[in-house]
Structures are given as structure tokens and as C-alpha cells.
Design goal:
By secondary structure, the chain is an alpha/beta fold. The chain is built from 7 helices and 9 strands, in the order H-E-H-E-H-E-E-H-E-E-E-E-E-H-H-H. The chain is 29% helix and 22% strand.
């Protein structure tokens, strides 16, 4: 089991699973992560003030692109949070999740100790999209087969769409995509059908619409998959039926309102004057938190 400050793979949290980027892009990514980090623990009746928005949960299996998946969903004007891979279905439902995306990851599904989701994820209670390792998990956990490939597939590939299962609605039958995998699905579970293939990957797409389960071997979140955003939109909006009503501005407004409500409630409960202490380390996370607290405490 990974210790504090280590990834699910037991490696140092800052080692091996990030993409080097120019300073501005890296700061932007960290700022966005800080703004959209998972909220505090809440009871079922305790929600942020303001308009409620649907949540698409991205479960992190160690992919260097996991945060990017959540960002791509938010670019669709749908709120998304990156959560641990073993977040239970009950917790997802408590948070108000409308759909779940399983990220890729460097493990093989047959590795000892390979990260797995809560088995209830496959129940059909929420639509699920598995990406790369996530798709392989879906196949393997539900009775299909995943095997190592003779040669790792890394780089551009061409996917041929065989079935407009919902993920590929409105797309040309042939699509350029980005692959990064050393294993492949070799047999589908009962109830699934193949929806896309490449020359070397017969099950580059799979679907069981009756259980709202979908998988793709390629990475729709990266720029090297030109129509990846359309695939994500088809899942989030078309399959899961999520409304595109969220914006970063609405998130800031609701967060400021929540902070103000919590401070006021605490002041009433203990008879204080409602002053707030905010610890600032100088990092991006605490700087964003401090800015939100400042706005909440200085505006009416």
C-alpha cells in the first residue's frame, strides 16, 4: 500500500508521472488544480451555496494525464473532480456524481497489487467510461481477457469506428488517435460489443449500453487525438445526459458563498465576531485558498 507522499504505484509522488511543461503552462495547471480540488467532507444535506452542478468524477489510476481528463471535462462546461481510484460508488453518489471516468495508468491489470476500483462501479448505477488502463480494467474485471502485446503501442494510430455506440456519434468512421499501452483486450466480457479497432488492437472501443459501460484504448484527452473532445462530450452529454451549465466563475461564486456561510454559521454557534485566520505558505494552493477567503471576508 502506498505511503504518504507516494503514488498508488509506490513511487515518490513527484517522480515519473508528470509531463514537463513551460513554466506558464505548469503554473496554469497547478492553479487550476488548486481551484478545482475536491471539496471538504460534507453530510448529505450540507452543500455549497448557489446553484448545484452535476459532477463527473475522474478516478485516478496513476496516469500522467489524469488531471488533464478532468480539465477537458470542465472545458465542456461540466464540473469535474479528480478522485482516488478506490473511491466507493456510495461516496461518488453522495458527492452527486452523474458519471465516472477511469483514467489510464502504468500498471498491467494482472500485476500483483494493481489498483482497482470499487466493484460496485460496474453495477450500471452510473455511466462509466474507461480510458486505456481503465478500459482494460473494465474488460478484465467483468470476465474478458487482457494480455501483453508483442510490441508496445505508443504514438499515433488510426482507429476505425465500427459502431456508433454513443461515444462516436457524429464522427467520421476513421479517426487519428494517440495510443500508449503495452497490453490489449483480447476477449470481451459477456454483454459487450466491439465499437472500434486499429490494425493491432481489435478492441480499441467496447460498449455495454445496457449497463452504461464504455471503454476506449486510446487517449481522448490529449491534443494528438483531434476529436477526443467530441468523444468526451458524447459520453458526458450524450450518454450521461449532463447539462453544460458549469463555469469557473460560478465555481468561484459558489465557493465564496460557501466560505461566508460557514464562517457566519460558526460565529453564531460560538458567539465570535466571525474573523478568519488563513495560513499562507506561498504555494499556489494556499494562495488560491487565501484569495477566496479574502474575497469572502471583504465582500458583502
Amino acid at each position: 500500500m502506498a505511503g504518504k507522499g507516494r503514488t498508488v504505484h509506490g513511487e515518490a509522488a513527484n517522480a515519473g508521472h508528470r509531463v514537463l511543461a513551460p513554466d506558464d503552462a505548469e503554473v496554469e495547471a497547478y492553479l487550476e488544480a488548486a481551484l478545482h480540488a475536491p471539496g471538504p467532507e460534507r453530510t448529505a444535506g450540507d452543500h455549497p451555496a448557489g446553484e448545484a452542478h452535476a459532477l463527473v468524477a475522474v478516478l485516478d489510476f496513476g496516469s500522467q494525464f489524469a488531471q488533464l481528463i478532468a480539465r477537458r471535462v470542465r472545458e465542456l462546461h461540466v464540473y469535474s473532480e479528480l478522485l482516488p481510484h478506490d473511491t466507493t460508488l456510495d461516496e461518488l453518489e453522495r458527492r452527486g456524481a452523474s458519471a465516472v471516468i477511469l483514467s489510464g495508468g502504468p500498471n498491467s491489470v494482472y500485476d500483483a497489487g494493481a489498483p482497482k476500483p470499487d466493484p460496485a462501479i460496474w453495477s450500471g448505477r452510473l455511466p462509466v467510461l474507461g480510458i486505456c488502463y481503465g478500459a482494460q480494467l473494465m474488460a478484465n474485471e467483468l470476465g474478458g481477457s487482457v494480455q501483453p502485446t508483442p510490441k508496445r503501442e505508443y504514438g499515433p494510430a488510426t482507429v476505425v469506428i465500427g459502431d456508433e455506440d454513443g461515444l462516436f456519434t457524429g464522427l467520421d468512421r476513421t479517426q487519428p488517435v494517440w495510443m500508449s499501452h503495452g497490453d490489449s483486450i483480447t476477449a470481451l466480457p459477456e454483454g459487450f460489443r466491439a465499437t472500434a479497432q486499429t490494425d493491432s488492437t481489435p478492441f480499441a472501443g467496447l460498449a455495454d449500453p445496457a449497463r452504461h459501460l464504455y471503454g476506449i484504448q486510446f487517449h481522448p484527452e490529449v491534443a494528438h487525438t483531434p476529436h477526443g473532445r467530441d468523444v468526451l462530450r458524447n459520453f458526458v452529454v450524450g450518454v450521461a445526459g449532463v447539462s453544460q451549465t458549469w463555469t469557473p466563475a460560478s465555481f468561484i461564486e459558489s465557493t465564496v458563498a460557501e466560505i461566508r456561510d460557514r464562517v457566519d454559521a460558526h460565529a453564531r454557534a460560538v458567539g465570535s465576531d466571525g474573523k478568519v485566520i488563513c495560513a499562507l505558505s506561498g504555494g499556489v494552493d494556499s494562495a488560491v485558498a487565501a484569495a477566496l477567503v479574502h474575497r469572502a471576508s471583504t465582500t458583502g
